[in-house]
Amino acid sequence: MMKVLMVNGSPHIKGCTYTALEEVGKTLKENGVDYEIFQLGPRPIRDCIGCNKCNGNGCIFKDDNDDVVNRFLAKAKEADGFIFGSPVYFAHPSGQILSFLDRVFYSTSGGEIYPIFTGKPGAAIVSARRGGTAASVDVLNKYFGIASMPIVPSTYWNMVYGMMPDEVRKDLEGMQTMRNIGRNMAWMIKCIEAGKAAGITPPAGREERARTNFIR
């Protein structure tokens, strides 16, 4: 069964972000796609330091005996699509999810760039009391763009509003947006699977990565 792996980037295990992700998940299930919510939880997550010791094989840091990045990467290998969810703090995604995703994506770039993520659909969703949502979605979408991941759209920008889960559930347009993400994600995953069955494979002949430094 096809599966979408979601990341709850909130320290609150079943808060507003979780509520939005669950609405997407229920719609995925209705459309024949399974899902799992990967919880980052309240623990601090250290930043990527650009040590270049990962070499495409995962991150060398273990985060106080909780190897959160590499646990996620092990699950990501089997996933067909991804959703990254975050609360909005100071018009920005949570520091936890940004540290996490920096390490996730940097540690999987190597000779074959981002092999776990390339060609798999992704979506970002955020929850907020009021402002900063569009800027936060934009930040999270950057990860999809660098890893050759198709971005899943909806019928509005991917955000919900509320201070508590019950308030989020009252955001009728926001919850509708979440359901439409689920429908579009399921459709896109099925299209990709049908393409593979018809012999249509991801683009071949990927060029070796070129890096241009502007200060010499």
Can you walk me through this structure?
This protein is an alpha/beta fold. Helix content is 38%, strand content 13%. The protein is built from 6 helices and 5 strands. It has helices at 16-30, 68-76, 95-107, 133-146, 165-169, 172-197, and strands at residues 3-8, 34-39, 81-87, 122-128, 159-161. The chain has a 5-stranded parallel beta sheet with strand order 2-1-3-4-5, sandwiched between helices. α1 (16-30) links the parallel β1 (3-8) and β2. α1 packs across α6 and α2 (68-76) crosses α3 (95-107). The N and C termini lie far apart (51 Å).
Question: Which features would summarize this protein structure in a list?
Answer:
alpha/beta, globular, five-stranded parallel β-sheet
Radius of gyration: 17 Å
Could you list the spans in which at least 5 consecutive residues all have pLDDT below 50?
A: none
Task: Give the class from helix and strand content and strand pairing.
Answer: alpha/beta
- Approximate helicity band: 25-40%
Main sheet summary: 5 strands, parallel
Residue fraction in strands? 5-15%
Count helical runs.
Answer: 6
Strand order of the largest sheet: 2-1-3-4-5
Measure the end-to-end span: 51 Å
**Total number of strands:** 5
Order of helices and strands: EHEHEHEHEHH
Task: Describe the global form.
Answer: globular
- Average pLDDT level: 92
